[in-house]
Amino acid sequence: YAAKHSRQSLVIFDQALHDGVEAEFELFSALKKALNANQLSVFYQPLVCGHNNEVHGMEALLRWRDASGTFISPMTFIPIAEKNNYIKQISAFVIEQVFAQLDDFLAIEPGVTVHINLSSQDFQGRYLINQLVELQTKYDVQPSRIVFELTESMVMLDVEQAKYMIGVLIDMGFAVSIDDFGTGFSSFSMLRELPISQIKIDRSFISACLDSDKDQAIVETTIYLANRLGCSVVAEGVEDSKTAAYLNAKGCHYLQGYYISEALERDSAKHWLHSHRMVKKVLKR
Ligand code: C2E
Ligand code: MG
Ligand code: MG
Ligand code: MG
């Protein structure tokens, strides 16, 4: 019985693995088609100053709406693009969209920065740098308006290469922000060795911080650390006014999350920037 049983489960396991690989392959083919069929678009989520409500930036977040109109999350397709060596194409698309969009945002809000998420593969080879040089010329982009968001895990993969690439980005005039701060491992040495401009405290520390002493200890220490290092600090995933008030009281510079706004399609993002500015003007009077 045991032999038969184990053989059976082996067959079942194989089948599941096979289905998984097949599904992934199909999703990857669909992703390639989607990029060519204009089914991918860049949405923008605002980051605001918690103290004066001034807009700090707009984070570019990729959206894939398939032919049936359903959204496929970047948490699903970015890892598949990474596995299949397709990040290069994805990043080229996002960077070009953002560079083409930037002037529009700047016309409404001259102080705004646009944040772009990178993947570990973007640090392999020179294509990212080549792309940036080319697109910067094509769209006449001021590099100080662009912030690249990197995660600690991206850097862990090849620390020396990552340090080199971050150095090149900073030399080119771009700003660098550490995304999902606190969930990786290399943060302190990165902060020590590189002129990082910003730390984004991961949502997992923010979402339940009002009920957790440990989360508060981590959040408050990170805010202190950022201040000591001369970095700005952002809280991601702020969903309610109480959390926003707590973060403001603790001196967190910027807030991002559904409490302020979700990620918005390009025209809605422009509209949001515009009305945010109008509301501020009215309140000032
Ligand atoms: P991330 O860069 O940490 O982005 C934050 C994610 O949290 C976004 O999910 C955003 O929509 C979501 N979020 C923002 N505020 C809240 C909130 O208050 N509550 C909750 N529950 N969620 C909130 P999204 O857009 O699904 O992106 C997920 C991840 O996919 C991003 O995490 C980023 O790592 C990656 N990603 C997205 N766009 C790109 C891209 O263009 N390139 C690359 N390489 N990665 C991307
Ligand atoms: Mg990000
Ligand atoms: Mg993040
Ligand atoms: Mg995150």
Automatic annotation (TrEMBL):
Q: Which UniProt keywords apply?
A: Membrane, Transmembrane, Transmembrane helix
Q: Which GO terms describe its molecular function?
A: cyclic-guanylate-specific phosphodiesterase activity
Q: Does the keyword Transmembrane apply?
A: yes
Give the superkingdom in one word: Bacteria
Ranges of residues in domain EAL: 24-277
UniProt keyword Membrane, yes or no: yes
Tell me what this protein is called. Diguanylate cyclase
Q: Which span of the parent protein is shown here? A: 249 to 533 of 533
